[in-house]
Amino acid sequence: MQVTDIPLVRIAIRVLSQRLVTLLSLFMTFALSAVVMYRPTWEREGMAAFFAVAVFLPCVLHDRRRDKDEQVKTDNKNGPQE
User: Fold this and answer.
1) 49 or 6, which is more confident?
2) Which helix (H) or strand (E) holds 35?
3) What is the pTM of this model?
4) Widest pairwise Cα distance in the chain
């Protein structure tokens, strides 16, 4: 491995870790929903809904922040607009 490959490896690890967190949260939400469907109560349904929002909200916010950062980098590469 050459020194020039290190940034590429760093980006790959960051992408894979984000995808892994998303898949793990999807699996946990599915498992909790299965338990709620097996023995439904209002408390369990409310907690499952809260959990689904609380788990996926950081993923959505991180994606939006990354998109804004990429847009700023693209604008900086293009130079000043006239």
Assistant:
1) 49
2) helix 6-38
3) 0.60
4) 63
